[in-house]
């Protein structure tokens, strides 16, 4: 296995992203529609945060209620903004960072996704699934 293969070879380039003006209902719809678990939050092309599906589940009361889930989610989602729920101190890497280094960061920091940023512009995202698929292809 080569040690200096850039993450650009396995990253997803067509990134689904949110803006600070989006609401949490839109975020949930995008998570479900695209079957993804992480979305960068951007201003223009710059990353200002990261939202995960788990972040949404943490604020949702639907799992502990017997009432209509959609009604509960709507009420809860309207109580918070994207900025209140997203992670603000986002760790990013550039597209030349090695896959090995990305794997190290994800393992040590217990992240499941990293935005790929070149010259302050979001160019991709890499997830633990991308890494696993890469490692599987090596055998």
How would you describe this protein?
This is CBS domain-containing protein. It comes from Seonamhaeicola marinus. Keywords: CBS domain. Residues 11-69, 86-139 form the CBS domain. It holds the Pfam family CBS. It is a single chain. This protein has helices at residues 24-34, 53-59, 69-79, 82-85, 99-109, 128-137, and strands at 18-19, 38-43, 46-52, 113-118, 121-127. With 139 residues, it is α+β, with helices and mostly antiparallel strands. The chain has a single domain (7-137), classed as CBS-domain (Roll), CATH 3.10.580. The strands form two sheets. A three-stranded mixed sheet has the order 1-2-3. Strand 2 and strand 3 (46-52) form a beta hairpin. The model is unreliable at 62-72 (pLDDT under 50).
Task: Work out the helicity level.
Answer: 25-40%
Low-confidence stretches: 62-72
Percent of residues in β-strands: 15-25%
Radius of gyration: 16 Å
Q: Please state the structural category.
A: alpha+beta
Instruction: Going across the biggest sheet, name each strand in turn.
Output: 1-2-3
Supply the number of helical segments. 6
- Biggest β-sheet description: 3 strands, mixed
CATH structural fold name: CBS-domain
Keywords: CBS domain
InterPro entries: CBS_dom, CBS_dom_sf, Diverse_CBS-Domain
Pfam families: CBS
Domain CBS: 11-69, 86-139
């Amino acid at each position: 296995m080569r040690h200096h293969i850039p993450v650009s070879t396995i990253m997803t380039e067509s990134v689904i992203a949110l803006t600070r003006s989006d609401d949490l209902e839109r975020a949930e719809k995008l998570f479900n529609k695209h079957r993804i678990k992480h979305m960068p939050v951007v201003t223009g092309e710059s990353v200002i945060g990261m939202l995960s599906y788990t972040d949404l589940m943490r604020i949702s009361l639907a799992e502990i209620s017997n009432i209509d889930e959609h009604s509960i989610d709507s009420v809860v989602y309207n109580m918070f903004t994207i900025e209140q729920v997203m992670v603000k101190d986002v760790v990013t890497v550039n597209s030349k960072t090695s896959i090995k280094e990305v794997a190290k960061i994800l393992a040590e920091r217990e992240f499941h996704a990293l935005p790929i940023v070149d010259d302050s512009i979001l160019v991709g995202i890499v997830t633990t699934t991308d890494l696993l698929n890469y490692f599987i292809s090596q055998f």
